[in-house]
Design brief:
The protein has three helices and seven strands, in the order αββββββαβα. It is of the alpha+beta class. A seven-stranded antiparallel beta sheet has the order 6-5-4-3-2-1-7, with helices on one face.
Length: 163
């Protein structure tokens, strides 16, 4: 009985001593405050036509959701986060998804017929919508059909604008 208690004591002590070292690399994040954007609630989202990038059209700054992450260009750089309010980490330009770099120049003027939707709906469905090419079959008339004649796919270049 004493040997068992001593064994568990040593095992517990070892776990406590080495646990901080083993977790040190797992939760590394850089919290970079980006001025001009603080949201009290998840923003309303809209898909940018011809892409599977979602924009927060009512936000005061460029804010995108793409493949499970939030992206924000600011002051000539790109930042990424798992939450719409950060914490934000710097993203090297060569790591920015091409879908974001190649956004149409007029992406802020999302056609009104494209639905605005709660972020929770986008978060829940973005993967399925992309796999099933959901927005490729959405017509501006409010239903599903082949894309309207004015519907264009991305590839027009966005640059590093940001606000």
């Amino acid at each position: 009985m004493k040997r068992t208690a001593i064994f568990f004591g040593i095992a517990l002590g070892t776990a406590v001593i080495f646990a901080p070292q083993s977790n040190a690399g797992v939760n590394v994040s850089i919290n970079i405050p980006l001025p001009g954007l603080v949201l009290g609630a998840p923003p309303v989202m809209a898909v940018i036509p011809g892409t599977y990038v979602y924009v927060a059209p009512e936000a005061d700054a460029d804010l995108f959701f793409y493949q499970g992450y939030w992206y924000r260009p600011y002051d000539g750089r790109w930042y990424v986060s798992v939450d719409f309010n950060g914490p934000w980490g710097f993203l090297a330009f060569n790591r920015v998804p091409r879908a974001l770099i190649n956004l149409p120049p007029a992406y802020r003027s999302v056609p009104p017929a494209y639905p605005r939707m709660p972020y929770g709906m986008v978060r829940k469905n973005w993967r399925t919508w992309e796999e099933e090419r959901h927005w490729d079959n959405y017509s501006r008339g409010g239903g599903y059909a082949s894309p309207s004649p004015g519907y264009r796919r991305g590839g027009m270049g966005m640059g590093m604008g940001g606000r």
